[in-house]
Every structure is written in C-alpha cells, then in structure tokens.
Amino acid sequence: MNAGSGKNHGAALNKAIAVLELITAQNQAVGLVDVSTKLKLPRQTVHRVLLQLEELGLIVRDAARDRFYVGPKLSQLAINALFSENHNLPTRVILRELVDDIRESCNIGVLDGMDFVYLDRIEADQTLRVHSEAGSHVPAYCTSGGKILLAYLPKSQQQKLLRLKELRPFTSKTCTDPVQLEQELDTIRSLGYAANDQEHTDGVVGVAMPILDSSGRAIAAIACHAPVARISLDQLKTFLPKIEASAKSLGSYWS
Q1: Which of 34, 168, 194, 249 is most buried by a 10 A CB count?
Q2: Is the same domain home to 67 and 115?
C-alpha cells in the first residue's frame, strides 16, 4: 500500500469514527442531513460512510424515516470492551478497595436494554452472601444498579424501555406498573442513588450509584447488595458516601 492510499484509509476511518461518535451521543435516531451538518462533511461522503457502517451492523437504518441509530454489533462491541481485561484501567483495584472497606459484595454493571449486566463483581469475605458472576444478566427495573441507570436515561428513551416488554413480578415487592416505576425513577434521579428492597430476590437488599463521565452522563453503575439476615437496607445506605467516592474514581478513569 502506498503512502497516499494509507492517508486515504486513515481519513476514511476518522470520518467513520466521527459518525459513530455523533450517533451514539444522540437521544434518538438521526438522519443524513443532521450528520452532514453537525460534522461539516459533504452529504455524499456521509452517505457513503453510513452505508458502510450499516453493512457492518454497527448502525441500523429506520427505513420508514431514513434515520440511523446504534446497531447490535456496536452495542456488543461496547459490552465486550467493558468486559475485556485487555486494558489498564484499575477498575478492579477500586472495586476491591471498596469491598475490603465495607465488607459487602459489590459489582459494576451497565444497561443492555432492560437488563443490568455485571461487568465485574467481587464477593465479600462473608459466610452468608449472594453469589453472582461477571456476565450475569438481571432485570434492570427491580435491581438497584439497573434502576439508577434507567433513572439517568433521557426521558424519551426511559419511557420507551419501560413499555418495551411486560414488567413481570419476581417478589411481592417488584414494581410492575410502568407509570409508578417512572415516578420512582424520577425520585431516584433527584436523590442520586437507587435502592432495592427485596424487589428481585426475597431476602436481598441493595444500593447503587451512577458512574458519571465528564459530561454527567451515567456510563455504568456501582452497586452493593447483601442478605437482610445480616444487614438491613438502612444500614446498607450508610455505605453510600464510600460507594460514591468509588464511583467518582471510576468515572475519572472512564471519562
């Protein structure tokens, strides 16, 4: 490959990345004109890039409105990147320090649709504990980590997710009314933390706080849960300042 060809490929890659960054930063699907205007690129160039990204499954086109949104392959790449240990982010060190300090199990997770996915989890050195593994999926609407991330979503996206599928009960305390849950998420957003009072599993309580990037967007959550046989929800809430400190440390590395 000659030098000129290399420069062309580099320029094309830069444009593709710019388009992906723009699309992932939007709250809704965007059209060719929007992308062209915001990136100050010719429409013909943007059209070519969009088609290539669509062919790769990185974005999806809404044929009815001719607008584009994040595709399944891009979502999977993002999750794989967060799961990967092939980076030097000291997230596990921060998580380990928190677990050693409060002596309760903690996890870091992200939203995948209406699921909360554990990216990393460290068990506390306790005889009685709740066992889960990294990679586990749990419902977002009845877990503390999931609820805090739902609460930080743009309102339109949040409402769409809450009505995407039936909210089935896991315990007698699971909220299955989308309107009521939406009101709870408003309260969670104002408080800055979420609590789980045996809503997913009887006998298990939890609290969570968002991991925010430099723009204030919740990119993940750090959560702690434990059996009520050992610790009450109110007692668990006393750890929130320490959980918040860990969330800020994680946010500084991910921003």
Answers
A1: 194
A2: no
- 45: containing domain: 3-71
* Same domain? 66 vs 93: no
Q: Which residues 6+ apart lie within 8 Å of 62 measured at CB? A: 29, 68, 69
Residues 248 and 194 in one domain: yes
| Total number of domains in the chain | 2
> Considering the entire predicted model, what is its pTM?
0.72
pLDDT at 129: 56
Cβ 15 vs Cβ 41: under 8 Å: yes
pLDDT, residue 6, reads 47
Q: What is the residue whose two structure tokens read 């320029």?
A: 11
Residues 92 and 165 both lie in one domain: yes
CATH number at residue 138: 3.30.450.40
Q: How far apart are CA 50 and CA 58, in angstroms?
A: 9
Q: Determine the pLDDT at residue 28.
A: 80
Q: What is the pLDDT of residues 138-171, one digit of tens each?
A: 999 999 999 999 999 988 889 888 988 889 999 9
Report, as ranges of residue numbers, the positions in the chain whose pLDDT lies below 50: 1-6
